[in-house]
Amino acid sequence: MATQKFMGRGQLIERLAAQTGSMKSAISILQKRGQMDATGKLTKTGQARNAMTAQERAIDRASKASGAPKSSFHYDPKTNRATRGTLLSGKRKY
Fold first, then answer.
1. Are 77 and 4 in contact (CB under 8 A)?
2. With contact defined as beta carbons under 8 Å apart, do 94 and 73 qualify?
3. Pairing between strand 81-84 and 91-93?
4. Confidence of residue 94 (pLDDT cuts 50, 70, 90)
5. How far apart are the C-alpha atoms of 51 and 12, rounded to whole Å?
6. Contact (Cβ atoms closer than 8 angstroms) between residue 43 and residue 35
7. Separation CA 34–CA 77 (nearest Å)
8. CA separation (Å) from 27 to 6, 10, 43?
9. Phi and psi at residue 34, in whole multiples of 5°?
10. Phi/psi at 69 (nearest 5 deg)?
11. pTM listed for this prediction
12. Residues 6+ apart with CB under 8 A from 70
């Protein structure tokens, strides 16, 4: 998966471009979210998201959507999803 190359901090734009297939689409999405201004510079919100890893962003999204604490989520890098519960020996415990 092309996006597996861009998992770290400071790679928000590159990761989104890999996911959407083009830099133009990635920039458009970031501008619609208010994370990038019309000149192509990241806003404060965009800078905050860019400072996070892919894992931190996924957990942050899931936590905000559910209202549950960030510590209750487990991240799966293959799916870029954060799910509740802890992973023990490859099996979930809820």
1. yes
2. no
3. unpaired
4. very low
5. 8
6. yes
7. 26
8. 16, 15, 12
9. 80, 15
10. -65, 150
11. 0.75
12. 59, 60, 63
Domain boundaries defined on the chain? 1-52, 60-94
Token pair 């802890």 is found at 86
| CB neighbour list of residue 40: distance below 8 Å, 6 or more residues apart | 27
CA dihedral 18, 77, 46, 6 (to 10 degrees): -40
For range 28-54, the mean pLDDT? 95
Strands 91-93, 86-88: parallel, antiparallel or unpaired by DSSP? antiparallel
CB atoms closer than 10 angstroms to residue 41: 9
E-strand ranges in the chain read 73-76, 81-84, 86-88, 91-93
Share of the chain above pLDDT 70, in %: 87
